[in-house]
Design brief:
The strands form five sheets. Strands 6, 9, 10 and 11 form a four-stranded antiparallel beta sheet that branches. Strands 3-2-5 form a three-stranded antiparallel beta sheet, with no helix packed on it. Helices cover 51% and strands 20% of the residues. The longest helix is centred in the last third of the chain and has 70 residues, at 218-287. The chain has helices at 6-20, 22-39, 114-117, 140-145, 150-167, 171-175, 179-196, 218-287, 289-304, 340-348, and strands at residues 42-45, 50-55, 58-63, 66-69, 76-81, 87-91, 95-98, 104-106, 118-120, 126-137, 201-212, 311-313, 322-324. It is α+β, with helices and mostly antiparallel strands. It folds into three domains: 15-81, no CATH class; 87-95 and 111-213, Band 7 domain (Tetrahydropterin Synthase, Chain A, 2-Layer Sandwich), CATH 3.30.479; 217-323.
Amino acid sequence: MQTYDPEDVVEELRRRVAALGVRRIAAGVTAALVLIFLWSMWFTVQPEETAIVQRFGAVNRTAGPGLHFKFPDGIEKVRRVPTARVLKEEFGFGTAGTGAGGRTQYAGDRKGFKEVSLMLTGDLNVIDVQWIVQYRIEDPASYLFRVRESRQTIRDIAEAVMRRVVGNRLGSDVLTVGRVAVSTEVKQEMQKILTEYQTGVRLVTVELQDVTPPDSVKPAFNEVNEARQDRERTINQAQEQANREIPKARGEAARTITEAEGYAVERVNRANGEATRFRTVLGEYRRAPEVTRRRLYLEAIAQILPEASALYIVDSDQKSLLPWLRLEPGQASAAAGKGAAPAAGLKGGKQP
């Protein structure tokens, strides 16, 4: 293997530089510097971005999408911010990418996220809360220069506010019906803090993805949920029966009261009618006692006789009772030829 002496290499370079000449080398260096100078004088901004141009470190202007020119590097510097894009921060889980079929793939190791997702509720229960925060950058200059490490600041604010809101609520509330209320309160509190810090960020949404108890207490939690569901079902059944029976009882009570009131009105009206009739009969009796007495007697007999199944006429001159045979309408023709005995019986009797 051939070896090279460093001194020989340096000497060979000197001979070649001397052969090229100082002017040629200076011209080459100058041309390279000019190309670099020209290349750094223009920049391109994508449709979803806004460029911040700094001149000697201070913010000079902003540039929208398209091709723009500036002073070369060292004088002006460009920083691009995605202002038209909705940015997302994930808490308690991580998205690894999108697989075949457009399905989202999540990070396999979730132990690293437990420090963020495990929270203590107001009733001293531990729950696993996973959520996302979506936001837009409204003021790129404030986003870059008002707060150091803006992205990490947003994450710290989101975690602090979420822990405070969850810590002020019952665990069952966060796990069931209070998820929307928690998201709304966290969004309002975060936006207030971000505005006070002048971060230039506007929140789009705060959404709870998955709220579950820790794996070690899931069996006990499921049993508690089943008991609560049984209780709710029993309460609903009792309420259903109450809703069915109470109106029925009220209807029957109203019907009984109405019938009683109707009966009372009927009795009062009947009593008033009887009293009026008695006063009328009394007046007639006073004017014609004998006629009124007979008329009352005949009316009473007309009411009593149709109800009697057999009639016996008692005569003081007779030694025994004489029955009066009552003929039904269908038996009148059959008894036409046998009317002597009843007629004779009626002859012997005397009408009272």
